[in-house]
Write a structure and sequence with these properties.
6-stranded antiparallel β-barrel; 4-stranded antiparallel sheet; 23 strands
Amino acid sequence: MDTAPAVEDVEAKDQDIASKRRRSILGVAVVVGVAVLVALLLTWIITSAGPTNRSRPTVTVGAAVAVTGDLPIQLDELGAVTPVQTVTITPRVSGTITQVAFREGDMVRQGQLLAVIDPRPYQAALQQARGQLARDQAQLQNSRLDLQRYQTLLAEDSIARQQFDTQAALVHQNEGVIATDQGALQAAQLNLTYTHITAPMTGRAGLRQIDPGNNVTAGSATGIVVITQVDPIDVIFTVPEDNLTQIMQRQASGATLNATILDREGATALARGQLMTVDNVIDASTGTMRAKARVRNASGVLIANQFVNVRLLVDTLHNAVIVPAAAVRQGPNGPFVWILGLNNTAVMRNVTVGPAVGEQASIASGVQAGETVITEGGANLRPGSQVSLPGHHPPTAGGPGGRSAGQGPGQHRRGGGSSGAGVAPSP
């Protein structure tokens, strides 16, 4: 008996049953997936329904009250101390150093004796110049007397005209010799003066380059000592080209821009002064221009080539609405803040940001003084979110999350001055 057709029928039935099972499982999976999607959609709709939905969790936030005050607009830049004058003291005559009259590192005054070159050769040269002048003056006097005699004889027609003219020329020649002698005498006097080397300005003496007994030559490149003027002293720093127009306008109006010199950490004020001028060329590689501030340095705390921080007060924004910089955020439509609305709900408000300094930012429009802005926790907020405040007493802009308008600001923020901790969500 042939059993092959029976086996084939059984296998076909098994395949049909397995195919039906797969279709049934797939259908169940589709139904479950659709149910999950519907559940997720309903959950999203419920959580986005608004502040009236009590299932949305309350977000704990930090807050500050917007205040009105004066905001100093200032730049914090890196600078280097540069002396107003630096002079290398070089000998103007040659000779042997017989005395060094200064101590290294001491302050020297203008006209103070620094060193002495052996003056004896120059005293002898001066004496020779005086003797030469006296001799030639006697010759000039004698030639003038002869000229007077020849003039009388010429009037009596006792001598030839040529003899009188020759004597007159001799007088002029001797007068020229006297002028030369007088110049030589002045040169000898100067050379003798140069043997006493004095300070051309008031400043601090550096390390000396010579010792008594050394021979020096006039115009030696090494010199004797370097003197730098330390009070007042200059600080060279760079200014961003974006701020140049405001600085130049302030200077053109006659305003004095105050500069504070801080240490390298920017924590301690070392000296104070004013902006003197800015350069006339912008560095194309950095987009900055060099500026010079001159400060008092009576204590000598600033040293040439020292690196410092410069805080330049460009202007003061009066009666500005000030909030903590942390309250200002960036969204697709520009800067915005979260405002604490009625019933402790979050309200998103687009703002126009003014200058910002350190942890403070000024608001040109969008926030009124007295309104409470959210400074912390804004990344978790949606319009209408229920919020809670620690202690239920939001601080002012000078408390946690910000400083008061009168406190010291930090570094100037460029590019609009806004800072944010998140991106605005879609309302």
